[in-house]
Design goal:
Number of helices: 4
Oligomer: single chain
Strand content: under 5%
């Protein structure tokens, strides 16, 4: 459950991996809903984990981070900074 601002709006998929809420009443409503619906909590938890493993885990981002760092190293070498 989150306010749909910034990264929250992208990471949390409303109704799939969590809920977007805009006010105090919606917070209470969604908390109560999840408390009363263990099957929904389990489904959202599995979907959330799947999303994190696919898009945000070390395995998912390693290559991009590695290439970025390698690019920084090459740039520093070409500028004589190493």
């Amino acid at each position: 459950i989150c306010s749909p601002v910034g990264a929250n709006a992208e990471i949390v998929r409303n109704g799939v991996t969590g809920f977007h809420v805009r006010n105090q009443d919606e917070w209470f409503e969604k908390i109560l809903f999840l408390a009363e619906n263990p099957e929904v909590r389990a489904r959202m938890g599995k979907e959330g984990r799947r999303l994190v493993e696919k898009a945000y885990s070390i395995q998912a981002v390693f290559h991009a981070v590695y290439e970025g760092l390698k690019g920084c190293s090459v740039a520093q070498e070409s500028e004589g900074l190493t």
